[in-house]
Amino acid sequence: MNLAVLISGRGSNFSSLVDAQKKGQIGVADIKILISNNASAKGIDYAKKNKIPFFVLSDKEWESEIVSLLEKHKIQLVCLAGFMRIISPELINFMKGWIVNIHPSLLPAFPGLNVHQRVLESKFPFSGCTVHWVDEGVDTGPIIDQRVVPVLKGDDEEKLSSRILKEEHKLYPSVVKKIADGDFVPFFMEEK
Question: Is 103 noted as a catalytic residue in this protein?
Answer without folding.
Answer: yes
